[in-house]
Amino acid sequence: MTDRVPVSPYVAGLRGACPRCGEGKLFKGFLGVQDRCGFCGLSFDQVDSGDGPAVFVMFIVGFIVVAAALFVEVSYAPPLWAHMALWFPLTAALSGLMLRPMKATMIALQYHHKAAEGVLDE
């Protein structure tokens, strides 16, 4: 295992792959994490991304949607119903598309930096 080239946590995260080998799948279902990697056997028992992915998705999607809504409002001044018809589906779609890669990236970064609950660097 030591002769293996390290996997970039960002590449593994965007692919939804195992943070150690980059080959096995990280997810079962939409956001459920596998018990272990089917390729290298890494256990995902201690994996916990918490609310981090949701917070990053809210910030990124919020910035995109608010900027687009302001641009459309200033440029075209559509009625309120048009704003709702545009921005609610876009917000839901962007959030759904970004949540899974963001969660996988957070898990890969935790593995890469050897993060553990209740452990401080000394």
Rounded to an integer in angstroms, the radius of gyration calculated over CA atoms is 19 Å
Mean pLDDT: 91
Ends: how far apart?
Answer: 27 Å
Q: Which overall shape is indicated by the principal axes computed on the Cα atoms? A: elongated
What fraction of residues sit in β-strands? under 5%
| Approximate helicity band | 40-55%
| Poorly predicted tracts of residues | none
Following the backbone from N to C, one meets helices and strands in this order, namely: HEEHH
Task: Please characterize this protein's 3D structure.
The chain has 3 helices and 2 strands; from the N terminus they run H-E-E-H-H. 18% of the residues are buried. Strands 1-2 form a two-stranded antiparallel ribbon. Helix content is 53%, strand content 3%. The chain has helices spanning 9-15, 52-76, 80-112; strands at 27-28, 32-33.
Short description:
This protein is mainly α. Helix content is about 55%, strand content about 5%.
List its salient traits.
122 residues; mainly alpha; elongated
Topology, pairings included?
Layout: H1 9-15, E1 27-28, E2 32-33, H2 52-76, H3 80-112
Antiparallel strand pairs: 1-2
Helix pairs in contact: 1-3, 2-3
